[in-house]
Design goal:
It is a single chain. By secondary structure, the chain is an alpha+beta fold. Helices cover about 20% and strands about 35% of the residues. The chain has a single domain, classed as Dimeric alpha+beta barrel (Alpha-Beta Plaits), CATH 3.30.70.1060. The chain has 3 helices and 6 strands; from the N terminus they run βαββββααβ. Belongs to the YciI family. InterPro entries: Dimeric_a/b-barrel (IPR011008), YCII (IPR005545). This is YciI family protein.
């Protein structure tokens, strides 16, 4: 099962790393070596985002993130895991699980009705 792992910064938390948080470079090496992390990267800040909407046939562009959110997306990874339990275990070892927020979203699978 593929999961999109959104790596988010929590602006309410201090910028310093939480004590005992895992090393991100080690996490990347480990998940890459096991074939779990298929791709990943940092993203530019929300201030560099462009939101695209079409209303009544007109393309509307807005600078900034698509929604007013407290958590700011800082990066993403695509994971290949056996199930949600494995995806949670992998995400919990990511530095930002300790210093921010990780959101896991499963990919649609052909034949899913929901």
């Amino acid at each position: 099962m593929k999961y999109l792992m959104l790596v988010c910064v929590d602006p309410d938390l201090p910028d310093e790393e939480a004590p005992g948080s895992p090393d991100i470079e080690e996490w990347v090496r480990d998940t890459d070596a096991k074939g779990i992390r298929l791709i990943g990267n940092r993203t530019r800040p929300g201030s560099d985002a462009t939101t695209v909407r079409v209303r009544n046939g007109e393309v509307l562009l807005t600078d900034g993130p698509y929604a007013e959110t407290k958590d700011l997306i800082a990066g993403f990874d695509v994971l290949e895991c056996a199930d949600l339990d494995e995806a949670v275990e992998v995400a919990a070892r990511h530095t930002m699980a300790w210093n921010g927020v990780i959101e896991l979203r499963p990919f649609w699978v052909d034949g899913d009705d929901d």
